[in-house]
Amino acid sequence: MVDTRSTAHEAGLPPVGTGPHRRRLGLLALVATFGGLLFGYDTGVVNGALLPMRQELGLTDVTVGVVTSSLAFGAAVGAVFGGRVADAWGRRRTIILLSVLFFVGTLVCVAAPSFGVIVVGRVLLGLAVGGASTVVPVFLAELAPYEIRGSLSGRNELMIVIGQLAAFVVNAVIASLWGEGDGVWRIMLAVCALPAVALFVGMLRVPESPRWLATHGRDDAALAVLRQVRSADRAEAELADIRRAHEHEAQEQRESGWTVLLRNKWLVRIVLVGAGLGVAQQLTGINSIMYYGQSVLIESGFKASAALIATIAPGVIAVVGGVIAIANMERIDRRTTLLLGFSLTTVCHFLIGTASVALPAGNPARPWVILVLVVAFVGSMQTFLNIAVWVVLSEVFPTQIRALGMGIAVFCLWIATALVGLWFPSVVAATGITGTFFGFGVVGILALLFIWRFVPETRGRTLEQVEEGVASGSLFTVDAAGRR
Question: What is the CA radius of gyration of the chain?
Fold first, then answer.
């Protein structure tokens, strides 16, 4: 565990305190995380929309994989360019642009007359999802005081799973009211337009990231923003801390982005660690459940209508797990959380594979046992992995490469997501649940080894302390207690 008292002393900053500035900070975080809500809804809605869409558009296993994964491929591109745009144009204005892209992508999907057009719409949504997955966590991390940075940044992942749960519930309600015939999937997708409008309107009243403003020489504007979300003495002290960090960077080298990254082996290492962490998260197969949960439950023995309703259970446990994760984010070290999460999800993978062998098709217990194990897997994932991964990615990259590093890591994450989404229907068709989840289990063991060996600890440190530790390589060393 990190001694937060010693890190607070080392930071030399006045306490965060309570008052209107804390409520203002919470409100700004709520508005920004509507990007996460859209992220979650757009990735979850396809779960219930696939079957009626497949029937109306005449999709095959391969084209279903393409429709599903096209969003993830678009997100990979959006993650890279979203970070670059946010560096140049600002976090706030980039999020506003993404809200427009969410709205346009939704309209294209809803009106799509054919396979090709639905793929175009899903790619547009993917660009928005990828951009949001990069920019919103960075915006929250730069806005938050370091003492509560993990729990505040983690709210974005909580909103993602709330969005996915909303998609599952909306899908079930719409299917029960209008059935699963032609056109019902268009109504499911159309709901996404509402939070897109809310994000656009809300971000018009949200200030820019103070760290981005300070990086671009706008210290007065940065101080004004900090005074909205900090006490007066804390705002001035924190701006002075940010200035010192930037002055140190300026003395070292004036370039940013790729030039800085490739000149420092420790920066290269942290980007590779971030990319590996993102890929490991997705190779748990979490999005195979979020995208194809209904199909997995049908294969386990549920009827289609019952499977659609049953997908709400993983959505509910995901939200509960997210709430627990945020509550523990400032109490448990990041590395401990990640190791525990990968251990639990790997056990769940092997249990699902074993249950599918021990309970053959036709056994009345089979669908219910697999449902319980899927819920346990999703609960473990959301409680210990998803929020922790996104928090670590938002805080581990130095300012000069923060958006670039985040973009590279999230690009790799989304490519892994896309490949899982593309091949999952074909793999399940070829090997069934058994081979699929045993495969996820093997990958989980490799991920555990990677986390143990390479991922550093960031809890209890300011972004400036993390930045100094990465640049010097000291963040990668192991202390006497065995903590990185």
Answer: 22
User: Whose CA is closest to 149, among 334, 18, 14?
Assistant: 334
Tokens 């305190």 correspond to 17
Q: Which two tokens stand for residue 342?
A: 């990968």
Per-residue confidence band for 481, with pLDDT thresholds at 50, 70 and 90: very low
Q: How far apart are CA 248 and CA 399, in angstroms?
A: 12
CA dist 484 and 470 (Å) reads 12
**For helices 91-111 and 193-203, what crossing angle results, to 10°?**
160
What are the CA-CA distances from residue 466 to residues 84, 189, 327, 484 (Å)?
22, 41, 22, 12
Burial of residue 483 (number of CB atoms within 10 Å: 0-12, 13-18, 19+): middle
Contact 242, 211 (CB under 8 A): yes
> Do residues 461 and 146 lie in contact, with contact meaning Cβ atoms separated by under 8 Å?
yes
Q: Is the pLDDT of residue 18 over 80?
A: no
Contact indicator for 166, 86 with CB cutoff of 8 Å:
no
CA 226 to chain centre: 26
Cα 417 from Cα 438, distance rounded (Å): 18
pTM: 0.77
Rounded to a whole number, what is the largest CA-CA distance in the chain?
A: 70
| pLDDT tens per residue across span 374-405 | 999 999 998 999 889 988 998 898 877 877 88
Residue with tokens 């809500």, as numbered in its chain: 37
364 class by beta-carbon count within 10 Å (0-12 exposed, 13-18 middle, 19+ buried): exposed
Tell me what percent of the chain is helix, strand and coil, each rounded to the nearest 5. 80, 0, 20
146, 328 Cβ separation under 8 angstroms: no
Specify the DSSP element, H or E, that contains 159: helix 149-178
Question: Which of 275-284, 293-302, 444-453 shows the lowest per-residue confidence on average (mean pLDDT)?
Answer: 293-302
Residue 258, burial from CB neighbour count under 10 angstroms (0-12, 13-18, 19+): exposed
C-alpha to C-alpha distance for 169 and 316, rounded to whole angstroms:
10
Tracing tokens 């210990």 back to the chain, one arrives at 384
Q: How far apart are CA 270 and CA 409, in angstroms?
A: 10
Residue pair 72/413 in contact (Cβ under 8 Å)? The answer is no
Q: What pLDDT digit, counting tens, does each position of 292-303 carry?
A: 777 788 888 888
Instruction: Say what percent of the chain tops pLDDT 70.
Output: 93
